[in-house]
Design brief:
CATH superfamily: P-loop containing nucleotide triphosphate hydrolases
Radius of gyration: 16 Å
CATH class: Alpha Beta
Strand content: 5-15%
Distance between the termini: 11 Å
Bound molecules: thymidine-5'-phosphate
Number of domains: 1
Number of helices: 8
Number of strands: 5
Strand order of the largest sheet: 2-3-1-4-5
Length: 208
Amino acid sequence: MSKKKVFIVFEGIEGSGKTLHSKRLFQNLKKNNISTIRIREPGGSAKSEKIRKLILNEKNNNLHPLTDTLLYLSARNENIQTNFKKFYRKKIIICDRFSDSTIAYQHYGMGIKRKIISLVNKEIIEKYKPDFTFLMVVNVNKIRSRLNKRKKLNRYDKFNLNFYKKVQKGFIKIAKNNKSKYMIINSNNDFKDNHNLVKEKVKKLISK
Ligand code: TMP
């Protein structure tokens, strides 16, 4: 089916529901025979999945924040070099996290200088900028119980809630700075209602 091959990103802190929304959207587009790929960051390609393992491996939790930052950026570069060079504007790309995660987590959360991240991001991303981003926000005080239900904990899952508050505030700042390209979705509301908002927006984005 001929549809505009947009690049869509889902962002948000852990437990915000972004992965479920991105998976549902992917399934829905596929069901309608719309050419789509779904990738995640860090990860997406075989090499960047290796970098993901390195970053998220529990044993590496003591990596210096700048090392961390550079690894997230390295994983992104591998993702761009493989997936984006191949599929950009050929398929709809749904990405679970992208460059805003690095600004939100590494700058707003960990205090790494924004200009370093922005400079490297710009060099890596080139023309492959998201057309639209859905930012899922949650009541941070409620995510603890959601995260406790997960079998596997992420490295930040162990950080305190203040860290997540800083990261989410960072995401919201980024979104409010460029309102036409973001939709902020309150994940405390009903999932189905929220997903309808996502589907409606995507329908508009992909219609020629
Ligand atoms: P996930 O929970 O969406 O699988 O993401 C994995 C972790 O990586 C999550 O804790 C957020 C973190 N992350 C960053 O800190 N910076 C980044 O640039 C990206 C893409 C992810």
